[in-house]
Fold histone acetyltransferase.
Amino acid sequence: MAAGDLTQANGRRGSGIPNVKTHQPQAEGARQGPQIIGTRQLCQATFDGKQHTAEILQARTVGDSYEYYVHYCDFDKRLDEWLHQDKVSPLIATIPSLDAVSPRLASIPSLASDSAQGLSSLALGESQKLTRRQKRHFNELHHVQQDVSELAPIDQHLEKEHQEKTKVKNIQVIELGKYEIDTWYYSPYPEPFATQHKLFLCEFCLKYFRKRKTLLRHLAKCEPLHPPGDEIYRSPPASHERGERPNPAAPATTLSVFEVDGRKSKVYCQSLCLLSKLFLDHKTLYYDVDPFLFYVLCECDSDGHHIVGYFSKEKHSSEGYNLACILSLPPYQRNGYGKFLITFSYELSKKEAKVGTPERPLSDLGNVSYRSYWTRKILQTLHDQGINLSIKDISELTCIRTDDIVTSLQSLNLIKYWKGDHIIAVTHRAVEDHVRSIEDSRFIEVDASRLHWEPYTHTAKPEPAGRR
């Protein structure tokens, strides 16, 4: 998907890892070694070189010193990392801050930066507590994930189990094609691959290996040099007039999309899920990939089709979802590929003559990408078709669900609630101003004339005689 500001595309670590011994949590005692597991310390982060409060999750010995696996309290898990003991120091007590009172709210930059204007009273003031509706709206705007205590009891158990199992990244780096990529999250690769510091992946079939020489032997005989399934879309390189894409990782090149059936290409799709789990925290890993179709986006050159991202969707969704999971690999982010995949999912919805919406919950980056796409598409429709359209009209033209249209227009303050209905309240000038403000050279249009695809139809197999 669209990249976050803290994406680390190129790995900085070496390909090996020293002999280490991992320690599990023990009772707190001396302020060094495994005794500080579970405590908060001041840690110097590698992503910005600054000190941040972090929780110590694990410790291991490397020679005569310790390394600690830390989670930065105000940041996403994707930045968790191992640090040498020299980068870890005791947390000095300070005057209580908003972080001490409400860590979940304080971790939101827009709230923390505005605390001087009184927004901190949302957390501190008894007379200014948020209503449930306000809280939902606040969380949606700022991408605050639901707290475990707010879930149903059975979901609390599953979430705590998930957090415990995935709190420490098992694989730190992968090599995919010409890129070495730092991973973000835990992924349940099978043993002995799950305990490797670095994995080597074939970018064509996604098989994974522990050693580069094994990968090279595989590449010498791997064919075809593209994903399995049917190529349903191919676009020519971007013209000079449209401008080149800003990142050298994504040159103006031919793009191709393959539709891969989870039932027909089970191993490839399972490997794709394992790869994506390294960069998606709450993705459910489906070993049963049969009910899904996977749409794999590739850059094409004389060396083959190089995967840059994908999205999946259920073959039959009772809730009208047109997308289940979406990912742009880190080296290819910030080049418009995330929005391209979102646009592509809605082009499929148009072919199906159905209104679609992504499966919830969305990740933080997914939320940003979808909000950007919906806003752009809605404003462009109002600009091209006129401002007198109703929400239903826009939904029929774009295949965007009405609820998504309403929330997008609310964020722009372009909608009012009148006599029980949401009414678009906008002028031509306002639409033009908004359209100019969202112009993005990285937006890659999907040429519907190059999409060769028919909606999936399920043909039931006849049951063998004597079976029901």
User: Anything to note?
Assistant: The chain has a mean pLDDT of 79. The longest strand covers residues 51-62. The CA atoms of residues 262 and 269 lie 6 Å apart.
